[in-house]
TrEMBL record:
Transmembrane segments: 21-44, 50-71, 83-103, 115-148, 160-181
Keyword annotations from UniProtKB, A to Z: Membrane, Transmembrane, Transmembrane helix
Name assigned to this protein: Uncharacterized protein
């Protein structure tokens, strides 16, 4: 549960976060339309047109902030963006209260609580459930204060308790719905990931066993092809020449390189070998310091998906991957350069992979020419 408190749908399911971005735009449009419609509905109660128009502008601003903040290009979504959007929506509710103070006859035609609740609900895929509840509770408290003020300066005959309940129930209900959605989707996603990881670990055990066999076969191949014939020749010779000594050193270095290649192989080398063999696309990895091993499990899928996609459907003729550490080892930079194939990918297609990468905190840049597609990922190690 402590982990779920800090996670959002965007973090545990980046693709789902990208797909949820249009929902924020829909919620923003509905909020703006609601504020305009209800302001026109109770225009006879408006005593300050300036405050009424200011309230609508606050709603539009809150929707714009929420929509832009949830764009895949601006991932990851942070809690301060949620609070900024909610603050603007609460500002709209305050402006509406000012515009009808002393003349507000009914509570059901006030858009403030509904707008705040809808915006919080639409941002549920990008916020933790605890932050959604906190934002809804604070907003409801502010609206309750406005309701207490309305009890003494309103045309309605309802008592303060009823005004507080009506003003707060929409915000609290929609915030609770958003929090329930966030908590549920994160819990279910984590459960699915744990199950998938268990399967992957079981399969990885078999892969690693195969790699060990491959390394052993490589050593046996070097021994049987080079070393054993040389030893047989030396044993049958009457004396060892300088050329034999040089050949012995050369064979020792060859065997050392075979052993080192097997030991220093990383998940990226294994991935490149697997994809290259399956897709018949040569993939070269330049990672002399085995820096790729420092990437965390949640940072690897964007690169894995990109390599798998680039190597399919004749999008690339070959792929080169360079891995290096920067900033004293705190940042891992991975350059992926794909030689364009007969079906060269477009910028918009590759940008989707960068959007998913940004959702998990990976920075990325893209450069496309007629000859190459170059993608750079920068990870915080």
């Amino acid at each position: 549960m402590s982990t779920a408190l800090r996670l959002t749908q965007q973090e545990v399911d980046p693709i789902g976060g990208v797909a949820a971005a249009p929902l924020v735009l829909i919620g923003s449009i509905l909020s703006a339309a609601t504020s305009i419609g209800l302001t026109a509905w109770h225009w006879s109660e408006v005593g300050s047109p300036v405050a009424a128009f200011a309230g609508i502008l606050f709603v539009v601003a809150a929707g714009a902030v929420a929509t832009v903040s949830a764009l895949p290009a601006r991932a990851p979504f942070t809690v301060d963006r949620l609070w900024f959007a909610v603050a603007l929506a609460v500002g709209a509710a305050i402006a509406e209260y000012v515009s009808t103070v002393g003349a507000n006859r009914y509570l059901y035609d006030d858009y403030g609580p509904l707008v705040v609740g809808v915006l919080i609900l639409s941002l549920a895929p990008f916020s933790t459930w605890i932050s959604l509840l906190a934002a809804g509770t604070v907003a409801a408290a502010v609206l309750a204060i406005l309701a207490i003020g309305s009890a003494g300066a309103s045309a309605t005959q309802a008592n303060a308790a009823a005004l507080i309940a009506v003003n707060s129930v929409a915000v609290l209900a929609l915030s609770a719905a958003g929090a329930a959605y966030s908590a549920t989707i994160v819990r279910e996603s984590l459960a699915w990931q744990r199950e998938a990881n268990a399967i992957a670990l079981e399969r990885d055990g078999g892969v690693r066993a195969g790699i060990v066999r491959s390394v052993q076969q490589g050593r046996v191949s070097v021994l049987s092809r080079e070393v054993l014939p040389f030893l047989a020749a030396v044993m049958s010779a009457e004396r060892i020449s300088v050329a034999d000594a040089d050949r012995a050193r050369e064979l020792a270095e060859m065997l050392r390189r075979a052993l080192k290649a097997g030991i220093e192989s990383t998940w990226l080398d294994d991935l490149a070998s697997s994809i290259g063999a399956a897709r018949q696309v040569p993939i070269a990895v330049d990672d002399p310091a085995a820096t790729a091993a420092r990437l965390r499990s949640e940072q690897r899928p964007p690169l894995t998906a990109l390599l798998s996609w680039l190597s399919s459907a004749e999008r690339s003729e070959s792929i080169r991957i360079a891995v290096a550490a920067e900033g004293g080892g705190e940042i891992v930079r991975i350059d992926v350069v794909a030689a364009a194939g007969s079906a060269s990918p477009s910028r918009r297609e590759v940008e989707r992979f960068l959007a998913v990468a940004r959702a998990v905190g990976v920075r990325g840049d893209l450069e496309i020419t007629r000859e190459n597609v170059r993608v750079e990922f920068r990870y915080d190690a």
